[in-house]
Amino acid sequence: MSLLQATGMRGGYGAADILQGCTINCDRGEIAVIVGPNGAGKSTAIKAIFGMIDLREGDVTFEGKSITSLAPQARVEAGMGMVPQNNNVFPGMTVEENLQMGAFLREDGGAGVIDKVYDLFPAVKDKRYQLAGELSGGQRQQVAVGRAMMTEPTLLILDEPTAGVSPIVMDELFDRIIEIAKTGIAVLMVEQNARQALEIADTGYVLVEGQNRFTDTGAALLADSEVRATFLGGDQS
Amino acid sequence: MSSSTRSSQASTTLVHQPWFLFMVMAALLAFTGFAQSWLFALTIVQLCMISSIMALGVNVQWGYAGLFNAGTMGFAALGGLAAVLIAADPVPEAWSVGGAGIGLSALVIGGTIAAVILVRAKLGGLAGFLSTAVILIVGYLLFTAVFGPATSAIESVDASQTGYLGGMGLPILLSWLVGGLLAAGAAWLIGKVAIGLRSDYLAIATLGIAEIILAVIKNEDWLSRGVKNVTSLPRPVPYEIDLQTSPAFVEFAQNWNVDPVALASITVKLAFIALFAVVLIVLVYLSEKALYSPWGRMMRAIRDQPDAASAMGKDVKSRHLQVFILGSAICGIAGAMLVTLDGQFTPGSYLPLRFTFLIWVMVIVGGSGNNMGSVLGGFLIWFVWVQSESAGFALMDALSGLFADDSPMRGRLIEAAPHLRPVLMGLILILALRFAPKGLIPER
Amino acid sequence: MHDFANAFILLSNYVLIPSITYGSQLAIGALGITLVFSILRFANFAHGDTMAFGTMVAIFCTWGVQALGLSLGPLPVALITLPVAIAVTIALVLGIDKIIYQFYRNKKVEPIILVMASVGVMFMMNGIVRILIGTGDVSFADGARFIIRAREFREMTGLDEGLALRTTQVITVVVAGVVMAALFWFLQKTRTGKSMRAFSDNEDLALLSGIKPERVVQITWIIAATLATIAGVLYGLDKGFRPFTYFQLLLPMFAAAILGGIGQPIGAVVGGFVIAFSEVALTYAYRRVFEYLGPDGFEVEGLAQLIETEYKFAISFIILVIVLLVRPTGIFKGRVL
Q: What pLDDT score was predicted for residue B429?
């Protein structure tokens, strides 16, 4: 049984359902990537998993318990970490304070965890007393991931972490994400850069119109000619 | 049980029918006539109408466009100033001793501004900054050199009677128009600065401009006599005393077997009411026309979905400026009408509670976005405001009965009575915002 | 040299000391406004009347203590009644939040509705304060009036100009310094203070991090009520208490908060001092200063006053307008409302 099992999710923002019964699973130490065309419901799916929108149908279980009715905050306490796509740092606070806020729920204040995060992102450590709002896009993403890591989650959810960053920064970030997964954390992310993301994915979910179209290992999906032709922009690159 | 279904049901019930609500209002006024006095009831009606006009002005800003004007008082005071400037008798002596000086001061201000604009267009950087500073300093020194002597000369001309330049001696009705224009001018200035930022800024800026307009009116004695007040402004309707001494009027009264003195008072009040009714009806008609024109629909679209509207290429800022100027102009007209009714301009009487906040309560209670709602709110809240004064005293009087005759608490309670009104009005506003945010006559 | 010293003393006496005192009072007031704005996201029009309310409670307590025949020696009794006044004001403000503001917060209404509700609160408080204490001037500063008297100073230094330092001025500056230091320490160093800054910075992310919004809001009101009461009492000790002047302080306080950058505590402090200094310096009559500095026998015609005292509110307003035109985010890059 997987750590996270989101089964048959239906729901959306208003009257129309964006999710049409899609299913996402993710296990410890595994990177699961959700890709698909614009408007496929990728971000909606992880928002539903994190409890930011209500589901009309379907069930989300985490560590074997149903969490469908929990608020996002309670899911953080249960062991989920979330990195939103936009506005994912406190721009007027220093890097260190951003990490401290990530540990707000911890009784111990997270002093030991901060060092682990700094080990993971050495570039961020150098800027620990700078305001997060003054960092470059890539460094800010690292702070954002670091903040979510402060609760030592068992599942880390990332909403398009590489949106708007350069290819070099993207590779760097993906390397970190692989390292995070190696420590036994489950990583679930939505990505626009489908090809690169699938390269590091243990499992890939291709969503179309709120439904699972293809589900396989990252490598298998990359090898699938139909997936390549339809969702990865053919063979040009 | 969504709120939209509830409100649509509510609008079909009797208490939300405009005609029913206006009937209730009329009944309240009629009751006042029977129980208290008809003259008192007519006095209330006069001010109800002026209040309704001010509420219309605020509604144009808040109801149509969602702009919070916290300085209605200032715009009404400008309207009042217009009544003085238009209708008061000119003081030729004051003009001869200080008119030139005032004119010259105006020229100095104009010249300084023109020079600054010219310099800033031609010179940039440090040179521009320095020459701007020099021009401003020279302009300021010139201005004080001319302005100070001129004003003290004007203010010393028969200080107990005039001591100011006076007005133009024109018919006071003209000031209703000019009052609107003056208020519009001030609104343009302040709107240029504060509109386009989030709405709190406009509220703070208008709060400030109102304070400053009042400070100018209270302190620039050469212009407005300041706190010495301008009294006996001419009336657009006959004076009671003239009616009472007119043989034809007295004969008419005797034919109908009524007291000529009472009839004269009632006639004068009715004449004012007729004049006010014309303005009120014209403004309601125009406001309704505007609201249901493409302009009004666009205004509401901008209010409800500002982002979508600006994405569609609507110039939100200039639309808001338009609506802000229009609403302020209406408040200016009402301000001029009020001074016309009083026959005097008393700067000390302009208080934020009475001239800004009360109007807001009228708009919210009446129904923001609905012109008829504002009119109803103007009538109802003014009625409550007037009646709450005597009710407050009655309450405090009754409470003071609990204390011994020589207890100092008695005096304290009676002294405190007027301050029950802000509490009551604050309570009405908070209750209305909470439980009936759409008001008595909701927006259609 | 003698003339120069005289001119300097004159300026200190009438410009420097008064504007530092007034600036401290404005700064504490503006801090409350800026904190409420940064957490609750609305311009709180009731802040001036909250100050008046807190001051009123302090005055009543002062009268009570004086009736018992107690005093603090050279210090005003109001200083020990301050904690009681703060506690009462906190209770009132928290009650108001529970009854009025919380509802709109949960409904996530437009901020302008909260502004209007605060206007309603302002007028209710306004009426209640006047009912309880009246509208007249109340002077409640007891204890020693001066630390240095003008005459003593003249005798001490041999200068023509005397420097008077009133007890209330020194108390204002000392208390303000302590309050600001405590507030900045709280915001920068404590977990709760940081969570407030985080909430102000990025509300959604603060929620994701497990920061409890209602708790942050409550603490904000507690701090705002404390600051309002302290600012009100200091102002009242210094200049006398009159309800209407507290309403009029609203404009300079808003101007200070916006000038400094709304939502920026340090900005509110700087803004408060800039506004206060501009008000005092621009309305001061410099005639005698120029006469000291000029050659012997030099006389200045008129008062050499830049702006009449009656227009001191215009100064905050003009500064406000200039900020809105030139740099709406204020000195310290606050939020544009």
A: 94
Q: CB-based contact (8 Å) between A93 and chain C?
A: yes
Of A82, A97, A109, the CB nearest to C208: A82
Which segments of C185-306 are extended strands (E)? none
Report the range of poorest mean pLDDT among A15-19, A79-83, C217-221: A15-19
With respect to residue A179, please indicate whether it lies within any of the assigned structural domains: no
The Cβ of residue B437 has, within 10 Å, a number of other Cβ atoms equal to 17
Element (H, E) at B12: none
Q: Nearest-CA neighbor of C120 among C52, C217, C44? A: C44
Residue B1 binned pLDDT confidence (cut-offs 50, 70, 90): very low
Q: Is B13 on the interface with C (CB under 8 A)?
A: no
Domain membership of residue A177 (yes or no) is no
From chain A, pick out residues whose CB is under 8 angstroms from the CB of C205: 84, 87-90, 101, 147
The parent domain of residue A61 ranges over 1-72+187-237
**Is residue C333 situated within a structural domain?**
no
Neighbors of chain B with 3 or more C-beta pairs under 8 Å: C
Given an 8 Å threshold on Cβ–Cβ distance, is B434 in contact with C248? Answer: no
Q: Is residue C335 part of a domain?
A: no
Torsion of CA A123, A129, A132, A136, to 10 degrees: -40
Say whether the A–B interface has 3 or more Cβ pairs within 8 Å: no
Which of the four pLDDT bands, split at 50, 70 and 90, describes residue A231?
confident
**Residue C41 structural domain:** 2-134+143-326
Residue numbers in A near C206 (CB within 8 A): 90, 101
Residues of A in contact with C197 (CB under 8 A): 90, 92-93, 97
Confidence band, pLDDT 50/70/90 cuts, at residue B163: confident
What total number of domains does chain C contain? 1
Q: In this predicted model, what pLDDT tens digit does every residue of A165-181 receive, in sequence order?
A: 888 889 999 999 999 99
- Out of C110, C127, C311, name the one closest to residue B421 (CB): C127
Of B203, B215, B434, the CB nearest to C43: B203
Element counts in chain C: helices (H) and strands (E): 16, 2
If one counts the domains in chain A, the total is 1
Question: How do residues B213-240 score in pLDDT, each as one tens digit?
Answer: 999 999 999 999 988 999 889 999 999 8
Query: Can you give the CATH number for the domain in which A30 is found?
Result: 3.40.50.300
Whether residue A3 lies inside any domain: the answer is yes
Q: Would the CB atoms of C208 and A84 count as touching at under 8 Å?
A: yes
Q: Is residue C311 part of a domain?
A: yes
Please provide residue A59's backbone torsions phi and psi, each rounded to the nearest 5 degrees. Answer: -145, 140
Lowest model confidence (mean pLDDT) among A115-129, B291-305, C47-61, C297-311: C297-311
ipTM of the complex: 0.90
C128 interfacial to chain B (CB closer than 8 Å): yes
- In chain C, residues with a C-beta closer than 8 Å to the C-beta of B199 are 110-112, 115, 337
Q: Could you give the C-alpha distances from B25 to B19, B380, B381, in angstroms and in order?
A: 10, 7, 10
Q: Is residue C174 part of a domain?
A: yes
The answer to whether residue A205 is domain-embedded is: yes
| In the predicted structure, residue B257 carries a pLDDT above the cut 70 | yes
In the structure, how many helices (H) and strands (E) does chain A have? 10, 10
Q: How far apart are CA A143 and CA A117, in angstroms?
A: 9
Give the CATH number of the domain where residue C193 resides.
1.10.3470
- In this predicted structure, what is the pLDDT of residue B12? 58
